[in-house]
Structures are given as C-alpha cells and as structure tokens.
Amino acid sequence: MSVLSEKHFHDEAAAYRFVEARVWPNGPVCPHCGGKERIGKMKGKSTRIGTYKCYHCRKPFTVKVGTIFESSHVKMHLWLQAIFLIASSKKGISANQLHRTLGVTLKTAWFMGHRIREAMREGGFGPLGGSGQIVEADETYYGKKAGPAPTTNTRGQPFAKKGKGGPSHKRAILSLVERGGRVRTFHIAQANKQNVTDLVNANVHRESVLMTDESRLYGDIHKSVGQHLSTRHSAGEYAREEGELAVHSNSVESYFSIFKRGMRGTYQHCAEKHLHRYLAEFDFRHNRRVALGVNDQARANHILTGIVGKRLTYETTQAR
Hints:
Elements (H helix, E strand, L loop, with lengths): L11 H12 L15 E3 L10 E3 L4 E3 L14 H13 L6 H8 L3 H15 L13 E11 L25 E9 L4 E6 L4 H11 L5 E5 L13 E5 L7 E4 L2 E4 L1 H18 L7 H13 L8 H9 L9 H5 L2
Parallel strand pairs: 4-7, 7-8
Antiparallel strand pairs: 1-2, 2-3, 4-5, 5-6, 9-10
C-alpha cells in the first residue's frame, strides 16, 4: 500500500491526532501559558477540530498555535502531504508541483514551501568533527547578486571583456561536511579568508582534520584546526593517500552536486533573500539521509518536531 494512502493524509481529524502525537508526546501543552495539567478537549458541535481549552489562562488553542501552521487556512492533511513530498524528494519539489498536486493556489504552495523550510532549519548544535575526525570544506557560487555587475576588480582594474566571468557578482556559499556525517552550509556576503576562518572557528572542532582544495581562502586555516590537508585540483589531483588518510573533498562536492541539481532543475529561480532557507532544506535532508538510517517517513516526522516556535508570516517571508 502506498504511504500516501495512510489515513492522516486524507482525514482531517486523523491529521490533527498525528501532529499532536509528535508535537505533544506527553499530552497537550498550552502555547499561551505553558500549562499542562488543567487542559480539556472541547467537544461542542460547532467546535473546530483539535481545539483544547486551558483552564489556567482560560484560552482555547490547537496544535497549530505557535507553529508554522498558525493562521493557515490550508487543511492539516494537505500540510502533511506537502511535508512528506518535500521530505522525500531528494532534489526538492517546486511550488508549481505542490500547487498542481495539492490543489491549492500557486501563492499558497510557495508560502507552504517556505514555512516547511523554516521547520527544517536547524541550529544550536555543537561543532562538527572532533579528535581525528575529518571535516571537508569548500565554497561554491549560485546565482547572481542583485544590481549591476562590477566592471573593475578590487584594485580598480577593469575586467577583461572576454573569457570566463569571476565570482565577484555571484552569491557565495560555504559548506562544511563531516565525512560520513552531518553538513552545515552558509550563505556568506563574500568568500574571503576572514569570513571562511570565522565560520570554521565557530563550527569545526579544533582537533579535527580539515580537508580542502588548494584555494587561497584556506591559506591560514591550519591555525584553526588540528591538521589541514589539501588537494591540488589545478594540477589534476582530486584524491591522494597520506598515511592512513584519504585526502579529498569529494563529500562536500557531492553535496554541492545535489544542491545545484535541485536549484537549477527543480526550483530554477531563487531570490538571494531566500537562499538560506533552501540551504536549510538541503542540509536537513542530507543530515537525515537513508545512509544514516533515516527513511522518508522518519524524515517527515523530524520536520514535525521542528515546527514549534517558527511561525512565519507572508510579510516576513517577503521582507529582505
């Protein structure tokens, strides 16, 4: 039987029960006052599905309050369908596809996608790597920055009219990948030594082995980690052995290949102000991939555990 044949994807009451079991594993919690004991379920004929009343603060509430679902008129079972589709699509699913599949407007599908990406956003975790563990770092560029492209470099010299364009007017992205483990990706204003070093200092354990390519951005990075090893892509070297270590940055480049296929093939366009949410989406799926023992259903459940405290309004989404 198809996963999408399960009751909570089609029945509204079952959908509420499904979400409540994951958001409130120990019973309902009032989002207004935090009360847990004096709470009762409202059962009147005109009462909305899933409504409770807190007898501490005397306010009614549902599991939607204080989450990405708050003030949404979309049925809960459609939200669960959207969450499963995004969680199970390796390269994402476009707003147009959600619009056609769920039967909602394109504007609603676009906003639902961003709310779900907000639930996928992670934070507050410890540094990547550790003693003897390998972390790979690399930078890439996706999309053009807003405004006209510069005509001169930082020294005031004009760019050549012909040849391959440089990254000066592109959006810079830095990714840190724990080999065989987690990824953490950042959209940075500019890819320079200082920004890269600051991010490595804040997110990589000082006793880790850091592996990169020969980019000058990592020239001083050996001061921030236990050991820094690199390969020379310009000389055709993409992997080598150094003692018992396999020196390469293939893991982070594999992550970038999935990210760019998704952005170019599925989403096609992304404003710079939304780039961090798409990065959060691809990070979330990578950190809960099948190779780490997480299947599609478990990944969708992980999204539901991250919906609390992340309400997103349409105006906030549109703001820079």
